[in-house]
């Protein structure tokens, strides 16, 4: 039976795709959970039209899984519902070819809906869409882009069990262990891999732009084209991560999206650039030539500063996330804002006035972009609605300011702050807030009871 598709996807989209690509034999259908992990199935070509006609029944419990794919019963998504099915529907425009697959495959993103067609509250994409709708209700439209930082690592660990940078895929040249930041020559050794990443992005409709050799050995950054549809910006990020991971594996190396895989070097961020347009298409953050900052920009910064502390779990959702925050690490350690300053949490880049935007820097690359997007957008609206003063900008080194005490000191404090946050409950929605915080609490309990090698190194022969 054909049902109206609540996501807005049409059967024509699937029919046109299949007609244009007779070589495609299978399709990856992908739904993202609270950790941003893609979960779903690989269906055969002949099953695609049914997905667009009637959706696909998927257990509700997959949105209540932790990082180890274990049920978190406290989310209420497991036996409280008898582990029943809801219906997942394709996201319009997300059906794309996958690069370098034999036989040919495609991919389509999904969102979860109740059986009556209402958005399912624990789907992270719906949380972000709610905030985009809140902007639209005010006659505003957010636009933006994410940056993607990551490591390319060897598949084998060193003699001490530590990860190490990958050898060049071009000719097998051994990696260096020094900083090669912005080295163009260093990129040459990974060009065959990056060529495949760009080819995969092109097939996915993602405008991947500049590639950079970043500060740490084996670390790289890909920038993405600014999107006027900010939901598309988040979709770009989750799809590009999968492309990078797939193509790296095809070239015999590991793409790592941990926030801090190498202890002596900076970690990987997921900086979020965001601006806001009015109904006339004008950037409301942009000042007139020669004028000072607009009230809208300042109030947005104020809202982001005031809500950042209780939201840090969204930006740093894992134990490893908190290893990224350290002085002189290019990761912010307080809520400071500033202009053209990479030591702050909220950076206003220099540049053309029409492109005036906020670069939100706290999130690690291990964060879920839909939840980051929802939280940042809600923080901007909070600032605009309440006309919050951000205080003076930080000039110079923000690592030397004194307001770090407001930031949670560790993962446990961040979980407690997020659970108690009425702002975060509003930003994510009550269901998503409960799912996310209960998953994080379960993961914390798992880590806390795990006896690691560090325990033995420190205590086995000393106490």
Automatic annotation (TrEMBL):
Transmembrane segments: none annotated. Signal peptide: none annotated. Belongs to the glutamine synthetase family. GO terms for molecular function: glutamine synthetase activity. Its cofactor is Mg(2+). Residues 124-463 form the GS catalytic domain. GO terms for biological process: glutamine biosynthetic process; polyamine catabolic process. Pfam families: Gln-synt_C (PF00120). It comes from Donghicola eburneus. Keywords: Ligase, Magnesium. This is Glutamine synthetase GlnA1.
